Amino acid sequence: MIVSVIPARGGSKAIPKKNVIPFLDKPLITYTIEQSRRSELVKKTYVSTDDDHIAEVSRNAGAKVIDRPPELATDTSSTEEALFHALETMTEKPDIVVLLQCTSPLRREDDIDDAIHLVSEGPYDSALSCSEDHSFYWEQDEGTAIPINYNPADRQRRQELDRWFQENGSIYVMTREILEREHCRLGGDIGIYEMPREMSFEIDTPEDYRIVEAIAENIEFAAD
């Protein structure tokens, strides 16, 4: 059995009640719940939350709610802790767990199922969604700028750089065995599910919110 878990604690600081703020015409978390429920492979959609309002919105959208204890919903609590608590709460133990973050609402209809296929049918034990990155990267060493992935004296075109992938936070897929063994959402042989750049923005700050909502108004994504 394949289930999804959507972590949504109530204590967001940068954007209060971030997970249920109005986004276009719905609470933000509703998009991810509806996308999960439209998946052909996900059999049950769970929301893990410590917040009564988030729980109510999630139930209204058709998700099953897991009441997360306050000690697992602090600023320092890990997503893996929420996943383990969710697994302990479920009456049926899944073979595959899909972690969906509602702060990355821009998904196409088939993104969830296609990512699952990398684990359920492919050679991977876990997978994550990413977008291809053609940026030129630098770091600072004692105040001096040092290039990471190219030589400024022999500048390549962006398309000629080695392929890098940026984790976009939208979809993670893992076998329950890997999650329990590694205590991490990613482990074993890891696959990349590639998504377009315009679908790969996360909402963490008010600026992010404005950017992602503007994108959502101008592209087709699994929102209806």
Pick out its properties.
alpha/beta; 7-stranded mixed β-sheet; two-stranded antiparallel sheet; 26% strand
Descriptive report:
The strands form three sheets. A seven-stranded mixed sheet has the order 5-4-1-6-10-7-11, sandwiched between helices. Strands 2-3 form a two-stranded antiparallel sheet. It has a two-stranded antiparallel ribbon with strand order 8-9. Helix content is 26%, strand content 26%. By secondary structure, it is α/β, with parallel strands linked by helices. It has six helices and eleven strands. The model has no long low-confidence stretch (mean pLDDT 92).
Let me know the largest β-sheet. 7 strands, mixed
Shape: globular
User: Strand order of the main beta sheet, please?
Assistant: 5-4-1-6-10-7-11
Mean pLDDT: 92
Strand content: 25-35%
What is the count of DSSP helices, taking H or I runs of 4+ residues? 6
Low-confidence stretches: none
What is the end-to-end distance? Answer: 26 Å
Q: Which H/E pattern describes the elements?
A: EEEHEHEHEHEEEEHEH
Structural class: alpha/beta
Radius of gyration: 18 Å
The amount of helix comes to 25-40%
- Total beta-strand segments: 11
